Amino acid sequence: MLRGLAGATVLIATTQPAEATTRSAQAVQDPNAPQDSSTGLAMSVGTLDVTPDSNPWMGGYGWWLRANNDHQVARSLRAHCAVIYDNGSPNVLLRIDIVSIPRSVHQRVRDGVVSAGLVDASSDFLMASSHTHSGPIIGDRPNPVVLLGVGPDEVKVINDYTDLYVDALVDLVRQTRQAAATPVTLNYAEGDAAFAKNRDDLPYVLPRVSVLLARRQSDGNPFAVLFGHACHPVSRNNDTVYDSDHPGFASEAIENALGVPALFFQGTAGDLNPITMSGDADVQNNGTVLADAVLDVVRNGSFQPVTGPVTTSLTEIQLPFTVDMTDPAAVAALRAKYQYRVDNIKPDDTGPDGAARRHAQLIISQIDDGTVLKSVPMPIQCWRLGGLTVLALANEVLSGYDIGIRGMGVAPLWIMSYANEVNCYVPSDEVSWAGLDRNYGYEAGWNTWWSGDSTIAGVGTAACSYDLPAPLRFSPPGTSPATPDSTEGILMAACRAVLGV
After folding, report:
1. Has residue 33 got a pLDDT over 60?
2. In whole angstroms, how far apart are CA 151 and each of 16, 138, 258, 300, 369?
3. Which of 162, 173, 261, 321 is 20 to 30 A distant from 298 in Cα terms?
4. Which residues make beta-bridge pairs with 127?
5. What's the pLDDT tens digit per position in 232-254?
6. Where are the annotated segments for Disordered (predicted)?
């Protein structure tokens, strides 16, 4: 046990083979040296309870204050670390029950892992958020001042908690690396879990369930299950109770059934919601559908072997705005639009209007001090194994990209989103063209409220909550394929390059 996150008791449970004994961290001479992982594939798994007991401020929903002041917990929020050793070389997966990982938090955790020598190369470390909307807000994006309307004292609470959070995650990786590794075999198969709908009224839903099953080499029994699915974890909807939502329920159900850790990874769920999402009953119902799908695959699936070597890459692209943020005249015109909002929205307005005013004030100050974003970074990570390619996309990527990327012909392919960091939604051209006409422009980042257009962040849209100065650039309406300088064109070209197609 250790004391972490603002005094909360944090349990670290590392899965061991039945015949192994757990060694304390103090007993390990080399803190980066695993046991029994020098040949073939081996694995260790660590689990950390990251449910807050000090930071009440919640992410996921916005425009009004939202806090779990009584620290009510439906299901614990957890972080899992899985280390896959390829002939002794560690590849680290870190997944967390959190709404999103801001860039600043991602970079601090990555720097901590890399500088401690816990991986051989930065691309050997991959972290991801489940995107549960029933957890704490951490870091600076979404901006808690814009999203929630909190003041300096509350921001300090969030920042202090974030510092502890970062340290605890790095320590989880360290302790998992210190743990005895179990020789395993890996196998991959897919199933289906159909409980999502497309909230942008597009024909895309992604029932695919990815399952990577690790079995002990010694006896063939399961050691761990890694699984993925694409659907916003909002089955609980908007209240003030901590909950890992349907992915967490599914994970616990799988663990109870198999007796091994089950680690969830989110897919391209940017525009996918559960069909039913009204409270704890829907968390259980949707989670049961997902868990049953995974268990059916484990028991009856057509698995294909996954082998080494593991080859990793990590690259970063820049997503442009509809406004050229390097053009002083264009930036001045944008500033004038935001000044209009500040002047015309009442200071005491609440809800989306109040948030839009706070956002406008923030962008004006960033323009004036030269810190306004010129583009949005997007890390893209790829792990290639024998028999499986994992493509991990940062940000809130919409479902149409999953279909487009799979059309490139790489298979088997596991596509993750909300990977490493989340800075924005990534809409496709067809969503950006529609603006207000699809989900009020939330994912597109623009609508026509308060003299809005496609060159200013829309009131009540994700562009406001993520502190973007403008929506992401899109192709001229009706253009196909996407233009090379559009968000869709840039992302698809980058994925083709990363996948080598």
Report:
1. no
2. 45, 15, 46, 53, 21
3. 173
4. 94
5. 999 999 999 999 999 999 999 99
6. 19-41
